[in-house]
TrEMBL record:
<dbReference type="GO" id="GO:0003700">
    <property type="term" value="F:DNA-binding transcription factor activity"/>
</dbReference>
<keyword id="KW-0805">Transcription regulation</keyword>
<protein>
    <recommendedName>
        <fullName>HTH arsR-type domain-containing protein</fullName>
    </recommendedName>
</protein>
<keyword id="KW-0238">DNA-binding</keyword>
<dbReference type="InterPro" id="IPR036390">
    <property type="entry name" value="WH_DNA-bd_sf"/>
</dbReference>
<dbReference type="InterPro" id="IPR001845">
    <property type="entry name" value="HTH_ArsR_DNA-bd_dom"/>
</dbReference>
<dbReference type="InterPro" id="IPR011991">
    <property type="entry name" value="ArsR-like_HTH"/>
</dbReference>
<keyword id="KW-0804">Transcription</keyword>
<feature type="domain" description="HTH arsR-type">
    <location>
        <begin position="2"/>
        <end position="96"/>
    </location>
</feature>
<dbReference type="InterPro" id="IPR036388">
    <property type="entry name" value="WH-like_DNA-bd_sf"/>
</dbReference>
<dbReference type="InterPro" id="IPR051011">
    <property type="entry name" value="Metal_resp_trans_reg"/>
</dbReference>
<dbReference type="GO" id="GO:0003677">
    <property type="term" value="F:DNA binding"/>
</dbReference>
<dbReference type="Pfam" id="PF01022">
    <property type="entry name" value="HTH_5"/>
</dbReference>
């Protein structure tokens, strides 16, 4: 992959992370796989909105899904997603403690 293609892929990933609702869903999925219904209940978002956000996260390669019967369970795509989320949140917390 070229340097430009790498940067475009990174930009696509950051666009997917640009929503506090999507970040919240990733944080919930960090605790374990969940269905749209479970995520809606835990996040306070409507089921259609959760589905829309999960589609964006899936297209960015941040979440996967598995179907079991009639249920679809979503989970983080790999450990790097949890590490990325942890790093971003740690950066935000650190910035609050040490204003420029």
């Amino acid at each position: 992959m070229s340097h430009t293609a790498d940067l475009e892929a990174a930009a696509h990933l950051f666009r997917a992370l640009s929503s506090s609702s999507r970040l919240g869903l990733l944080r919930l999925l960090r605790e374990g796989a969940a269905t749209v219904t479970q995520l809606a209940e835990r996040s306070g978002l409507s089921q259609p909105l959760v589905s829309q956000h999960l589609r964006t996260l899936r297209e960015a390669g941040l979440v996967n899904f598995t179907r079991t019967g009639r249920e679809t369970h979503y989970s983080l795509a790999d450990p790097h997603v949890a590490q990325l989320l942890d790093t971003v949140l740690a950066h935000v917390v650190e910035d609050r403690r040490c204003p420029a």
